[in-house]
Amino acid sequence: MFSKIKKIFSSKITLVFLSLVVSLGIITGAFLYKTNRVGAYCTTSQGTLCFGGPIRSVYVCCNGLKITVGGPREGTFLFTAGSKLYMWYNLTAGQCVLGDAWPGGVCLKPTSWPPCTDVERVDGIIRYVGTTLSGPAAGTCTGG
Questions:
Q1: pLDDT for residue 39
Q2: Is the domain 35-144 a CATH 2.40.50 member?
Q3: Concatenated DSSP letters for 53-112?
Q4: Rounded to whole angstroms, how far apart are CA atoms 41 and 136?
Q5: How far apart are CA 123 and CA 15, in angstroms?
Q6: CA trace torsion 143, 132, 66, 56 (10° rounding)
Q7: Rounded to the nearest 5°, which phi and psi values hold at 5?
Q8: Residue 23, SS3?
């Protein structure tokens, strides 16, 4: 009887320990993940990533909005409660954006069960972003 209890107890400790290690790996990876696409980003003196172009899609995450930005400075970024949004306050598909972001981050998807446990990496967490009043007619964000 005692050997069965010891066997069950030791397997649960192993399971708990393994779960903690995996959880810490996911959390650490979220902060350390950086993209290395050549020429895709500019980096500011503070170590942030520059981005700019038309918004291709907006997806709701449990911890913010995942925004996919097209070229010329493309990527997938997370707009959170700590992000600053400047004129014209228009984060919808087709609008032009320009901003900078801290490298790394994750989008917690609300579609999993239990909610907000499915993780998807993003290129950066938006620090500042400005938008256009109305999207460009041709779908590109070039001056002129």
A1: 41
A2: yes
A3: EEEEEEEEETTEEEEEE-SSB-EEEEE-TT-EEETT---STT-EEEEEEEE--EEEETTS
A4: 22
A5: 32
A6: -50
A7: -65, -45
A8: helix
pLDDT digits (tens, 9 = 90+) for 7-41: 665 666 666 665 665 566 666 666 655 444 434 45
Name beta bridge partners: 102.
Answer: 125
Residue 142 reports pLDDT greater than 50: yes
pLDDT for 125 equals 96
pLDDT in tens, 99-127: 999 999 999 999 877 888 889 999 999 99
**The tokens 């981050």 sit on which residue?**
105
- The confidence score (pLDDT) of residue 141 equals 76
β-sheet bridge partners, residue 32: none
Amino acid 31: pLDDT: 60
Write out the two tokens for 77.
């970024």
For residue 21, give the DSSP letter. H
Domain chopping of the chain, boundaries: 1-32, 35-144
Residues in Cβ contact with 90 at an 8 Å cutoff, skipping those fewer than 6 apart: 131, 132, 133, 134
